[in-house]
Design brief:
Layout (H helix, E strand, L loop, with lengths): L2 H42 L2 H8 L3 H7 L3 H19 L9 H18 L1 H12 L6 H24 L8 H17 L1 H7 L7 H17 L7
Helix pairs in contact: 1-2, 1-4, 1-6, 2-3, 4-6, 5-8, 5-10, 6-8
């Protein structure tokens, strides 16, 4: 094999390695920023704290995100996208019981695994969404209206009770995100201990039973 062939493969591999390193650094920074923004708010979060949480030099954070607002919006959009994908099961052709059950399951699991992201979102909304109001008016409104349209079809087809679609979505959001946003309260009322795997499974079962029994019509 000619020598230049080996060199070509070696040089061709460099961009891919750089891409992987970039993706790894971005993920590390965004994950760290999620924690710092949740604990300190936008104003209290600093590049130094984010760099310390990510265990990388502050210059690295500044290199990828020279503006703190861009990093903040990236964190908010990331958790929104994760929640949006969680609702992929809410489609007209799917069983309402399975679709809503899967959605509740996934949202509770995200409250378990991504509590800081939920708190960042909650803090932003409580303050009147000073930084991501445009995102709410555009993306969230469009997403919500599409889910409402599906629920209205289910109602028209007699597959679920004639409930207010918005009230149903708001109920699911508030219940599932409570376990993240009020995690300290949950832990305190649980004897100072975080939920065990068994407790999380029981929570999912109970929440689904309470919501679905009031929404889904029994099969004839």
């Amino acid at each position: 094999m000619p020598a230049h062939s080996t060199d070509s493969r070696r040089f061709a591999a460099i961009p891919q390695k750089q891409i992987r390193n970039r993706e790894k650094n971005l993920h590390r920074i965004v994950a760290a920023a999620e924690v710092v923004f949740a604990e300190n708010g936008f104003a209290g979060a600093t590049y130094a704290k984010i760099a310390q949480q990510a265990e990388i030099p502050k210059s690295n954070v500044l290199y990828y995100f020279p503006k703190k607002e861009v990093l903040y919006r990236t964190v908010v959009e990331d958790i929104y996208n994760v929640w949006r994908y969680a609702a992929d099961s809410i489609k007209r052709e799917n069983s309402p019981e399975e679709a809503l059950g899967d959605y509740i399951d996934t949202k509770l699991e995200l409250s378990r695994t991504r509590p800081y992201g939920s708190r960042v979102w909650a803090n932003e909304i409580i303050q009147g969404a000073p930084i991501v109001q445009d995102y709410l008016e555009r993306d969230l409104k469009d997403w919500t209206n599409k889910r409402i349209a599906v629920i209205e079809v289910w109602i028209a087809e007699g597959r679920i009770n004639p409930v207010d679609p918005r009230a149903l979505l708001y109920l699911i959001w508030s219940v599932t995100q409570h376990y993240a946003d009020f995690g300290h309260q949950i832990k305190t009322l649980n004897g100072g201990q975080a939920f065990s795997d068994a407790q999380w499974q029981e929570t999912k079962r109970a929440v689904k039973a309470i919501i679905l029994q009031g929404v889904v019509l029994p099969t004839q």
